[in-house]
């Protein structure tokens, strides 16, 4: 797709699955065949939050994901650390320069070695503008077919502005779409009960509106709290809202 065609597509897509499939194909047209998008709204000075609350979209294969994500190597990735303190796009030559200057820790060097073993060597990282101190989003664009970082940099010099725009708009669109974190999706009844709480209704009001007993409403709210891993119903309403699970349109 051309730039205008792709932006038009992004404007009207309604699901993360549809968006991500198209985005992977669009980035592959520039040589970026493996992507990882990550977003958190629970960042602190010492943590990115519970990994189960991250929005993670990727087309990397399982062996890479097992090491980089599930084993926690991402936390020591040099380009992720760059993304946390910067906005915009950066060539992975930054990591190479850090190696040459001896500025990387043993753990950071281990990440780069793991990446090399998986063919994730040349690419770019895009760090998105944050709307709050607790949120951060970034995407890793890996070019498995490139022979060198210089080759990727030359391609970026020609098309980088368009690629950056596509990724920024895709990120903004992702923020508007429902995302069910692993093991934290709400059932229709749980979501409906939380929606009524968000509207300021009491348990008795909700029971009447949903045609249930108060005990059953309390059960749905308890299960919603457990699913979202929070302690209070107010926290559940907030987290469900942040994940765009509230007031979603049924297919």
What percent of the residues sit in helical stretches (DSSP H or I)?
A: 40-55%
- Structural class, judged by helices and strands? alpha+beta
The CATH architecture of the largest domain would be 2-Layer Sandwich
Q: Count every beta strand, where a strand is a DSSP E run of 2 or more residues.
A: 5
- How far is it from the N-terminal to the C-terminal residue, by CA? 27 Å
Biggest pleated sheet: 5 strands, antiparallel
- Within CATH, the superfamily of the largest domain carries the name Transcription factor LuxR-like, autoinducer-binding domain
Run of helices and strands: HHEEHHEHHEEHHHHH
CATH class term of the largest domain: Alpha Beta
Q: Looking at the structure, what is the overall shape?
A: elongated
CATH fold call of the largest domain? Beta-Lactamase
Radius of gyration: 21 Å
